[in-house]
Design brief:
By secondary structure, the chain is an alpha/beta fold. The chain has a domain at 145-240. The chain has 13 helices and 5 strands. It has a 5-stranded mixed β-sheet with strand order 3-2-1-4-5. Helix 1 crosses helix 3, helix 1 packs across helix 13 (288-296) and helix 7 (145-159) runs antiparallel to helix 8. The radius of gyration is 22 Å and the shape is elongated. The N and C termini lie close together (11 Å).
């Protein structure tokens, strides 16, 4: 039987909650405890509490990672951040019920190998066209069509490129088709889907105006990763976009915007650990502060 939760443990849980769920900077957390509770807690003390809390949260963090790795559809993304003045990176891999975030000093495959060395043999990986994601072993891939649509819009505006417009229309047609496919129809032949596949093949064979070099580069990339473009039309659970991963990583950017760069040693990784649990609780309808109290009392 566990001992009752102490005042210090409640304080630690609340600090973790304010830090990750409410994005509060260390100075404002100190001010909050001084103004509300009359407690003089320095920023250094707050850092120490977060460090100890993150260490206690490691078993839950490992369970989050395990839940993501066992998922059938996984989204991945990464974003830059400043830690002690140096450019580092936050990475996320997330699924419907779990979000795993980690800090890294690189944006390359080394980070993927460090966390998921075997890749995702049973999962479809959804992502943008960053090489580290494209090269991650998986049962299948889905390139984020929202990213492609933004590129195509740029080509249309810059070059008035008919090819880009046709490609954009093809993607829009596929996204609309996705909305009409019934769950039991994904594994059966479909004329509309076959027509879109044929149109895609026609577009990637079409000659691009040499005065549109960026469009030509785009076409070559599509040819190379052609099988990653329409996966969402064959699996009910695979989205055409990577919005969930972008949302997970956007929350990190909000924290950076409010608080600035991470200055404390391990500050970024401590935040990643606690934020992973925060997002996972939200996805499962669990009370974040209650879960933090459980961790603090471990």
């Amino acid at each position: 039987m566990k001992a009752p939760i102490s005042y210090a443990q409640r304080t630690a849980a609340l600090i973790a909650y304010l830090h990750t769920r409410q994005y509060m900077p260390l100075a404002r957390i100190s001010e909050f405890f001084s103004s509300v509770y009359g407690m003089g807690i320095s920023q250094g003390t707050v850092c120490g509490i977060l460090e100890r809390f993150a260490q206690k949260a490691l078993p839950a963090f490992a369970l989050v990672k395990q839940a993501v790795s066992r998922s059938r559809v996984i989204g991945a993304d990464e974003t830059g951040m400043r830690e002690n003045g140096k450019l580092n990176w936050f990475w996320t891999w997330q699924s419907k019920f779990a979000t795993y975030i980690t800090a890294s000093n690189n944006r390359g495959s080394e980070t993927v190998d460090a966390h998921f060395p075997a890749g995702f043999a049973k999962a479809i990986l959804v992502h943008d066209c960053w090489p580290s994601h494209l090269n991650t072993p998986a049962a299948g891939h889905q390139i984020c069509t929202a990213h492609l649509m933004r590129e195509l819009l740029y080509f249309i505006q810059k070059y008035q490129c008919p090819w880009a417009q046709k490609f954009q229309q093809m993607i829009s047609r596929a996204i609309q088709l996705k909305k009409t496919i019934k769950p039991d129809e994904y594994g059966t032949p479909q004329k509309q889907r076959a027509d879109i596949e044929a149109l895609l093949d026609q577009l990637i064979r079409q000659k691009i105006d040499p005065e549109h070099p960026e469009v030509l580069t785009f076409q070559k990339r599509i040819i190379k990763y052609r099988e990653y473009l329409l996966t969402f039309l064959y699996n009910a659970d695979v989205p055409s976009h990577n919005n969930s991963s972008e949302q997970a990583i956007r929350n990190v950017k909000v924290k950076l915007k409010v608080s600035g760069m991470f200055k404390a040693n391990n500050g970024a990784q401590n935040y990643a650990i606690i934020r992973s649990i925060t997002d996972t609780c939200k996805k499962n309808g669990q009370g974040i502060l209650n879960e933090f109290l459980t961790i603090a009392n471990a």
